[in-house]
Amino acid sequence: MAVALLTAGATLLSFRYADLMPGWARAVTGVLSGATICLYLYLAIFLMPYYLLGLFAMLGLAIGFHVFVPLLLVYHTISATIHLKLAKPAIIGAALSLIFVAAFCAKYSLTVRDINKIYNRNVVEAGKAFRFGWKPPAPCNPGSSRNAY
Predict the structure, then answer these.
(1) pTM for the complete prediction?
(2) Sign (positive/negative) of CA torsion 128, 132, 133, 136?
(3) What is the model's pLDDT at position 90?
(4) Of 12, 48, 49, 132, which has the fewest beta carbons less than 10 angstroms from its beta carbon?
């Protein structure tokens, strides 16, 4: 996440020099801006439950403004992307980032399923051992000579 935020920040800083960039660098900036929009949109949606609290904190303590930073960055990134005419590469970047997230979620789901299979298999085998003759050790009798220290 930290690398994604640093890359998103560098992309936003590069908008200032987009007019001086060659075509391929503008296209890369556009693709990265699409991924940046997805990242900041995720953060804005994640912080949505805190907007009302942030509004009151902004009026009282002036610290609640930080809740709205991802939302403002979404707005700024979209407006700068449209102003610099980088909408097509941005759409490609957003699509690529969403495809990457979907592939990661699918792979993660398969990994969790495999781990659960192994865990459930071990639980079943332990249950069979308990049913078919294995018994837990009996509690020690405090008066027996077996417990003498």
Answers:
(1) 0.72
(2) positive
(3) 94
(4) 132
